[in-house]
Amino acid sequence: ISDPIANATFFAPTDTTLNGIFVPRGGQLTRPENLDESWNGSLFAVYARPVAKLKSNLSLSAGVTHTRTPTRVNSGINVGRTTAVRPGLNLSSNISPQLDFTLSYQGAMNYARNAATDDDTGDYYSHTLSLQLNVVVGPGIVVRQDLVHNLQGNTAPVYGEDALMWNWTIGKKFLKDQRGELRLTTTDALENERTV
Fold first, then answer.
1. Across 20-55, where does the E strand assignment appear?
2. Which of these, 121, 123, 119, 100, lies nearest to 110 by C-alpha position?
3. Would strands 56-73 and 5-11 be described as parallel, antiparallel, or unpaired?
4. What separation in angstroms does the CA of 2 have from each of 6, 39, 41, 69?
């Protein structure tokens, strides 16, 4: 995008009036400004095939995204560049009307670089690994298990850097052709949710 609207941030070293706006010492003023070009590019691919022995489908995925975003800080221009590499895997099965499962993994390695600094403190890794299992254990009785592991590497602990979530459901199907279902669900049985 040519001349994108970006943030221009001014940090006041002393009490300052800027364009008629008073900014106290230590304060900041952020306003929109048209800067040099900004762009975002993505590439994504998926390969899938049946796995006959498991009565399942396997899909592998990979993606890359790159963004370039300019900002102004006081009188200098900072250009932020972020690259994300995302591998993925999904194994889904419908073994029988009484048993099916889905195992999936989605990862992301994020690399952030800014022209204003040489450090790589913005780099982080994240992944979600999950298992969903549905089992019919008796006439119209369904048990569902959902395990999800979320990992946020190189981030503040408050964001739930490593959490295992377990949700389970037991249900009873009823009505004609078992089109109705009454469920009892427990969400976050391990009490690991840390939402900010």
1. 21-23, 28-34, 39-51
2. 123
3. parallel
4. 11, 9, 15, 11
76: tokens are: 């200098």
- 136 vs 6, higher pLDDT: 136
Name the pTM for this structure: 0.69
- The reported pLDDT for the residue numbered 114 is 83
Instruction: Answer for the pair 49, 58: CB distance below 8 angstroms, yes or no.
Output: yes
105, 129 Cβ separation under 8 angstroms: yes
Q: Which residues, listed in sequence order, are joined to residue 157 by a DSSP beta bridge?
A: none
Strands 39-51 and 180-186, sheet pairing: unpaired
Tens-digit pLDDT profile for residues 23-68: 888 888 887 777 777 788 999 999 999 999 888 999 999 999 999 8
- Give residue 20's region: left, alpha or beta (phi > 0; psi -120 to 50): left
